[in-house]
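Limitations

Structures in this collection are predictions, not experimental determinations, and the ligand pose is part of the prediction. Treat each record accordingly. The example that follows, with zinc ion as the small molecule, is included so readers can see exactly what is and is not provided: the inputs are given verbatim, and the output is the predicted complex.
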Amino acid sequence: MSSDPPFRILPKLVDNTRDFWTGGAVGELRFWRCQDCGYYIHPPQPICPVDYSKNLTVEAVSGKATLASYSINH
Ligand SMILES: [Zn+2]
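Predicted complex:
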């Protein structure tokens, strides 16, 4: 039996996903947030789905939340 770590496909880093995938390296959970209406946008996209604003920036969040649902994939 091999002791090698399991093979993982890493996510592709592009401009609008880089902050999300690399924030953990500095202890931050980061999301894009609309600066006009305050909506957190995930998965990242170049426009706010609420008010179609392009005034978006990346913000670190506390990581505290209420779990509403989850799934276990097999
Ligand atoms: Zn918005």
